[in-house]
Amino acid sequence: MGNIVLDIENVSKQYRLGEVGTGTLSHDLNRWWSAIRGKEDPYLKIGDTNDRTSKGDSDYVWALRDIDFKVEQGEAVGIIGRNGAGKSTLLKLLSKVTKPTTGTIKYKGRIASLLEVGTGFHPEMTGRENIYLNGAILGMTRKEITRKFDEIVDFAGVERYIDTPVKRYSSGMYVRLAFAVAAHLESEILIVDEVLAVGDAEFQKKCLGKMGDVTKGEGRTILFVSHNMASVKSLCDRGVLMQNGNIVLDTDVNSVVEQYFAYNIGEEFNRLNFTPEKGQFLESFSIKSNLQNVIESGERLRFELKLKNPKSNLLIDIGLYNTQDEKIFNLSTSYFDVDTKRDKINCIFKNNLVEGNYYVNLLITDSDKREHYSKCLMFNVLNGDYYGQGRLTEKIPSKILIDHEWE
Q1: Domain named ABC transporter: which ranges (predicted)?
Q2: Any long-range contacts for 95-98 (C-beta under 8 Å, 24+ apart)?
Q3: pLDDT tens across 375-395, in order?
Q4: Which of 139, 217, 335, 376 has the highest CB neighbour count under 10 A?
C-alpha cells in the first residue's frame, strides 16, 4: 500500500427534509440525551435511501450511507454518478463544509476545495486580497503566496481586474480566479466539483491540463466530480461510481464510466423522434432507418426536420456524440447550398458508426435568433453489414467505420 493521504471509514450523512438540524427541540433533546447516556442516536435507525424518484415514508434521508475508501498520494480519482447520488455531499464532508453523521475522515496535508463558483471568496474584497486570504486559510505564509501570485493571475487572465472587488466579476472570471488559486496554492489534496462547467471550452482544457500537471508532476492528489465523461477519462486513472448515496464500484476509470452508462442510460437511448414544447423554427426532428426502430452500421439513415416559419438564410447544424460526450461528427447546411425556405428538410448519410449508444444536439440559427436542443435524439447502433459481407461480429476498437479495401 502506498502513502495514504485520505482515509474515509464508514461515513454516512443524514438530513431531515426541509429542516435545519432535526427541526424540533424535542428531536434535538432526544439526540443530546442519548449521547449523554452513551446510547446510539435514535434517528440513525430511521431514514430513507436518497432516491429522488420515489416518495419515502420518513422525513429523514441518508444522503450518504457507509462510504469506505482510501486515496493514495498522487492519485486522480473521478467521482461520478447521477444528480443526487451523493457526490457533492461527499465533497462537502471532505472539505469540512459539514460534518458526517457517522464515521471518520482522516487526511494528511492541506485540502483546497472548489465546490462552487467563488468558494472561499469574500465578495467585497479585491481579487488580490482574496488570493492572500485563501492562501492564509490554507496555512501559507505571505511570502509563499507572493511567490505564486503572478502565476495565479496569469493563469486566470484577470490581471486588469485584480484590484477590483470580486463581486463585480462575471461568473466566468470568478471561476477562473477561484480555480487558479486552488490549483496553484500548495495544498496536498485538491477537490474540484462540476464548477469548471462555468468556464469556456478553452479554459476547461487549460484547467484539465493544469490538474494533470498537479497529479503527475507535483504528486498532489485530486478528487474530481464531473458529468463530462471525456474529461474524467482524460484526467483520472481511477473512478468511483456512486448511486443513491452508496459506492457501487471503485476500480479503473474506463470500467466505471462503462458501468455508469449501463446503470443510467438503458431505455433512454431510444428517442428517435423529438417535438419541442416551443420554438421559433423547429416543429419536429427525427431519425429514420430502414429497419424502423433498429439502427445498424452500414445502412443509410435520414434525419428529418419539419420547420415552421422557414427562412432562406437558416443555418442547421446536427452534432453527433457518443456517451462519453466525445463529438463524432457534424452535419451542417453550411457545407452545402441548401434552400431552407421549406417546411421539410432531410439530411441523408451512410451510417459509419460502430456499435454503441449515441445522442444528437441540434442547432438552428439565423442572424437574430438561435435555437439549441441538447440530446434531443438518442439511439443505439448495432454492428450491421457495413462491408457487404454479413454482420460485423467483433467489437470494433474504433469510433467510426471507414470504407476501405485490401489488395
Answers
A1: 44-269
A2: 95/191, 98/13
A3: 899 888 888 888 877 777 776
A4: 376
Q: What is the DSSP letter of 116?
A: S
Distance (Å, whole) CA 22 – CA 29: 10
Q: At what angle do helices 142-156 and 171-184 cross, to 10 degrees?
A: 140
pLDDT digits (tens, 9 = 90+) for 336-356: 888 888 899 999 999 999 888
CA 349, CA 192: separation in Å to the nearest integer?
40
Domains of the chain from N-terminus onward: 4-9+65-264 (3.40.50.300), 268-382 (2.70.50.60)
Q: Is the pLDDT of residue 109 over 50?
A: yes
Q: Is 188 helix (H, G, I), strand (E, B) or coil?
A: coil
Angle at 168 between CA 163 and CA 171, to 5 degrees: 110
Q: Give the H/E segment covering residue 105.
A: strand 102-107
* pLDDT 10s digits, 247-265: 999 999 888 887 887 676 5
* Cα(386)–Cα(383) distance, integer angstroms: 8
For the chain, give the mean pLDDT.
Answer: 82
Per the document, the length of the chain is 407
Residue 253 near residue 234 (C-beta atoms within 8 A): no
Whole-angstrom distance, CA of residue 115 vs CA of residue 324: 23
pTM: 0.63
CB 225 within 8 A of CB 80: yes
Q: Mean pLDDT over residues 296-322, rounded? A: 90
The whole-angstrom separation of Cα 377 and Cα 343 is 20
- Structure confidence at residue 29 (pLDDT): 61
Give the closest residue to 106 by CA, choosing from 156, 54, 68: 68
pLDDT higher than 60, residue 230 = yes
Q: Taking a C-beta distance cutoff of 8 angstroms, is the pair 286, 273 a contact?
A: yes
> Given a cut of 50, is residue 53 above it in pLDDT?
no
Phi-psi region of 369 (alpha: psi -120 to 50; beta: other; left: phi over 0): beta
Dihedral, 240, 195, 117, 220 alpha carbons, nearest 10: 60
Q: Whole-angstrom Cα distance, residue 1 to residue 72?
A: 8
